[in-house]
Amino acid sequence: MNIISASKGKQTHVHEFLGSTQFAEKGKERHNHRFAGVTGEAIPIGKGSHIHEFRTNTDFTVNHYHVLKGKTGPEIELPDGHHIHYADVVTSFDDGHRHRAEFATLIVPRG
């Protein structure tokens, strides 16, 4: 995966994202993590559609963190002309477990 490389040519666009993982473990160890980041630039996938790659770390809680990385799905058009992307991934395996995370990116501001 060519994660989040800056373009030397014409830049396209990126999306912010944030969320919380699903809970993992049981009892006193049961917990989740928060995350936030910015995707890489648009990656064309044909027929005028595109996806984005992303990579970020979760927060540090219960003495560990996880890496969250993957690719979004194709754009989801909104009625106002903006678009978002959906992602559903599993974190890295750390401290004996993983977390599932699903989120929608934020819209790209116009200006």
Describe this structure in words.
The protein has 111 residues and is an all-beta fold. It has one domain. The chain has no helices and 10 strands. The strands form 5 sheets. A two-stranded antiparallel ribbon has the order 1-2. Strand 7 and strand 8 form a beta hairpin. The chain starts with 15 loop residues before the first strand and ends in a 7-residue tail after the last strand.
Provide the fold topology.
Layout: E1 16-20, E2 34-38, E3 43-46, E4 49-51, E5 53-57, E6 67-71, E7 76-77, E8 83-84, E9 86-90, E10 100-104
Antiparallel strand pairs: 1-2, 3-4, 5-6, 7-8, 9-10
| Secondary-structure element series | EEEEEEEEEE
**Cross-sheet strand order for the largest sheet:** 1-2
Structural class category: mainly beta
Content of β-strand: 35-45%
Shape summary? elongated
Number of helices: 0
Radius of gyration: 15 Å
Separation, N- and C-terminal Cα atoms: 31 Å
Question: What's the pLDDT, averaged over the residues?
Answer: 92
Helix proportion: under 10%
Largest sheet: 2 strands, antiparallel
The overall number of domains is 1
Low confidence ranges: none
Number of strands: 10
Give the structure's gist in a few sentences.
This protein has about 110 residues and is an all-beta fold.
